[in-house]
Amino acid sequence: MFAVLRRNPVALVLAVLLHIALAVFLLLEVDWRDEVKPIGGDVQVVQATLVDQQKLDAEVEKLQAAEREKSDKAAAAKRAEQEQLEALQKRRADEKRKLAELEQQRKQRQDEEARKVAEEKRQAEAEKARVAELKRQEQELLKKQEVEKKRLAELEKKREAEEKKRKDEEVARQKAEEEAKQKAEAEARQKAEKERQERVAREKAERERVAKEKAEAKARADREAREAELAAQFAAERDASEKAEVASAIRAKVERNWLRPPGTGEQGLRCTVRVRLGASGSVLLVNVVRSSGNSSFDRSVEAAVRKADPLPMPRSERLLAQFREIEFVFEPSN
Amino acid sequence: MKSHSSAWVAVVMSALLFAGCSSTGTKDDAGASIEDRGGSGATTSGVGAGGIWTGNPLDNPNSLLYTKTIYFDFDQSSIRSEFIDVLRSHAAYLNSNRSASVVIEGHADERGSREYNIGLGERRANAVKSFLEAEGVADSQLNTISYGEERPASLGHDEVSWAENRRAVLVY
Amino acid sequence: MKRLLLLVLSVGLCLPAYASTLTIEITQGLEGALPIAVVPFAWRGDAAAPPAHEVGGVVSADLQRSGRFKPLPTSQMLARPTRGEEVDFRDWRALNVENLVVGEVTPNGPGGYLVKFYLYDVFRGEQVTGYSLPTTARDLRATAHHIADIIYETLTGQPGAFATRIAYVTSERSGKDKKETVELRIADADGYGPQTIVSSSEPIMSPAWSPDGRQIAYVSFENAQPSIWVQELLTGKREKLTSFKGINGAPAWSPDGRFLALTLSKDGNPDIFVMDIARRSLRALTRHAAIDTEPAWAPDGKSLVFTSDRGGSPQIYKVSVSGGEASRVSFEGSYNARASFAPDGRMLTMVTRVDGQYRIATLDLATRDYRVMSTGRLDESPSFAPNGSMIIYATRVNDKGVLAAVSTDGRVQQRLRLQEGDVREPVWSPYHQQDRSR
């Protein structure tokens, strides 16, 4: 390609120029079309329509027809009005007649009304008379009641008076008795009081003496009790620790001597034996209290206890008693 | 004339490339097949000067028929490819001697339980039997028996001995 | 007030004395075999001691082999009492021996003996049991085994299996060509006194005891053909039960003795069949293209386990005696074969392969607990003792086939007395009448 270009340099230049020109035109958006320019300013335009002779005749005809129509219509209207008037007059006459009828009816009703009113008046007066009579009777009854009441009240008064009298006499009598009793008591009391005072004085003296002795004794006893308490506490603690120690030693010795059958460590077996011991820990008796269900396991349990003979025992007499009978629960743990 | 050498170069190169692929790799078949020199009277050495085997073809040491034991892989009863020709020649022999019959013994190595090994031995004997039948041998000419591990060929207790015991034996 | 205080205090001090009995919990101890001493029995006759081995020695060896007892070596005994009066328990407590056996053998008529023994609890210091057993020279050893059974059962609560027998196969090669002689033999459970019941130059396999202990079934390759035979032990009379085309193998007696399960490949591949022995009728139990073999009956006679490689490699499967679907039982490892049941039906023993080594394993059927029991490379043919306490099996030691036993809890391993040549395929006899006088 380059060789060709080199052989035709002119063509090349022309081509390049052409392209440049094209580019320029495109970029500047030169428009190549011819322009149409407008003529002068704004002008008024008349919108005329053509005239037609036939059309004109037709128009005249139309107008005349219209005129004829109008007069016909007016005549008809007048006739109608006349009819309307006659109808109206007829209606008025009817109405007058109706009115006269209504007037008559109204009069009849009025007469009826007047008669009813008179009747009612008469009944009301009768009623009034009856009511007056009832009232009078009521008054008489009330009067009677009052009289009765008065009489009863007087009776009551009389009774009360008599009651009061009796009561007063009773009270007076009691009072007299009471006074007599009190007098007697007062005397007796005085006497007793005298004796009591003497006794109290005596006792007081005695009590004071005793109290003194007691106080001394109590002080002594308190001291002793405190000492005893302390001693007991020490003993208990010593016992507890010795007990634990001995139990632990027993356990260790029995465990050391326990040879159980192979495989029985993982079967959940459990055997309880009760052992009676001599004072020095010698095994006197071994009883299977709860078998494991496996005879050779039970056997090994008993052997363990016997092989551990003599079992360690506590030193204190007190505890020894607790260790004479021991229950062993053999249950291998993993 | 303009030169289009470069294009042609490209075309030619591609052609060469494809040409290179056209040939499938030829593997060397240096395989297990032994030259078939049996029974046709070809001259061999070791028998006698210029001698032809005249005895029972089954006893010809230069014949495939001489091989009457084939071996198996551990726990397998499939015929190994190296024994196919041996079995084919036995099939050919039996086909051309319809009155001949053979007992195929199946064996296993000593590992594992005995009765299961009897089963394994039978599988091997049956594999040989099936092969021979497929080659046309009549069922009446073939008998099988499994000895499991009871009749070892080698009395050792190692891989070599075991390999020698995993076998089927053709007993004429 | 003072008195009241003292009273309160003294009552307080006395309170512990009236509490419940002191209880001590024992949770630790040792597990192990029971230390026992079996003192050599005395011979009370004038003539030379009976040729049978010393009774005490047989008892001691039996107890030791069970794994449950640890007999004291005679060299460590501080005293050798042979009568009750001679026993001083202190001699034995000092050695931490928990049980003591003493005894004597006395002549009892022509060719007869009376064996007496006493079992003592050393720490209780009293006799546990004692027996007086009349016997003969021939049965002296059997009596010793019986004594071991009694001691075992008294102290462990379980029946002993010392007066039982085992059957096994031996192989001897002689001559330049190493010609093989194969024999089926029967001996005491401790390997003593072997008797040959079949001798052949062809293989013999898979001996199986009948439940009454009177017969043995086995596979024989005589006449170059495997067939199943049943032989009566007392008379040596035998008869051929099957001789089908193909495999005839793995005979197994049903617990009631009426049926024999066996492996036949007459229908194309090895399958399990059940034969009604009286009627000689056959019924196929499995029908599968895989190798199905080595059947074994469950003690309740309702199902069997067998070996099958239907899943690709040999595993143990279980099938109902009426046939039907077989379900897999072994899931450990890629090789499990030759399973058989423990007498209580709760456990299986089998050959298993672990890291390329063939060993004996047990599988607890309830807990699925699987345990490898032996440590050899080529262990096979496991068989439970009739009391379930031990498993006998074949292994190799110094390039020879020997028999070994392991206690079912895996604690004790023992080798049985060696024989010439290779010994293999042991199978433990059941209990049978003539061995137990109960």
What would you call the shape of chain B? Answer: globular
CATH topology of the domain at 269-330 in chain A: Fusion Protein Consisting Of Minor Coat Protein, Glycine Rich Linker, Tola, And A His Tag, Chain: A, Domain 2
CATH level 1 name of the domain at 269-330 in chain A: Alpha Beta
Q: What is the strand tally of chain A?
A: 4
What is the CA-CA span between the terminal residues of chain B? 86 Å
CATH architecture annotation name of the domain at 53-171 in chain B: 2-Layer Sandwich
Q: Please trace the helix and strand order of chain B, writing H or E for each element.
A: HEHEHEHE
- Mean pLDDT of chain A equals 84
Total DSSP helices of chain B = 4
Strand order across the biggest sheet of chain A? 3-2-4
Question: How are the strands of the largest sheet of chain B arranged?
Answer: 1-4-2-3
Helix-residue proportion of chain B: 25-40%
* CATH architect. name of the domain at 269-330 in chain A: 2-Layer Sandwich
Q: Could you spell the SSE succession of chain A in H and E letters?
A: HHHEEEHHE
- Name the CATH class of the domain at 53-171 in chain B: Alpha Beta
Radius of gyration of chain B: 25 Å
Q: Mind sketching the topology for me?
A:
The complex is a heterotrimer of chains A (334), B (172) and C (438).
Chain A lengths: L1 H6 L1 H20 L24 H204 L2 E2 L10 E7 L5 E8 L4 H13 L9 H4 L4 E6 L4
Antiparallel strand pairs in A: 2-3, 2-4
Chain B lengths: L4 H17 L47 E3 L12 H13 L5 E6 L6 H21 L7 E7 L10 H7 L1 E5 L1
Parallel strand pairs in B: 2-3
Antiparallel strand pairs in B: 1-4, 2-4
Helix pairs in contact in B: 2-3
Chain C lengths: L1 H13 L7 E5 L3 E2 L2 E5 L3 E2 L11 H11 L3 E3 L17 H5 L5 E9 L4 E10 L4 E11 L3 H17 L8 E10 L4 E10 L6 E6 L3 E6 L5 E6 L6 E6 L5 E5 L5 E6 L5 E6 L6 E6 L4 E4 L7 E6 L5 E6 L6 E6 L6 E2 L7 E6 L5 E8 L2 E8 L5 E3 L7 E5 L5 E8 L2 E8 L5 E3 L6 E7 L10
Parallel strand pairs in C: 3-5, 3-6, 4-6
Antiparallel strand pairs in C: 6-7, 7-8, 9-10, 9-32, 10-11, 12-13, 13-14, 14-15, 16-17, 17-18, 18-19, 20-21, 21-22, 22-23, 24-25, 25-26, 26-27, 28-29, 29-30, 30-31
Helix pairs in contact in C: 2-4
